[in-house]
Amino acid sequence: MLREHYPSDKLFEEILGYVPNLSPELEKIDRYLEDEKLYRLIKKDLSQRRSNTTRTGRNSTPVEVILRMLVVKRLYGYSYEETERQVSDSLRMRQFCRVYLNAVPDDTTLIRWANMIQPKTLEKFNERIVQVAIERKVTRGRKMRTDGTVVESNVRPPSDGRLLSDSVRVLARTVVRGQTILKTVRKKVLDEFEDFTQTAKGLSRKIGETLRSKKKEAQAAGRQQYGKLMEVTEKTIDWAVQIQRQLQKQSERSAKRLVETINHFIPLARQVIQQTTRRILKGEQAPAKEKIVSIFEEHTDIIVRGKEAKPVEYGHKIWLNEVEGGLVSHYRILDGNPSEEKQWQPSLKAHLQTFQHPPVQASADRG
Question: Is-above-0.85 flag for pTM?
Answer without folding.
Answer: no
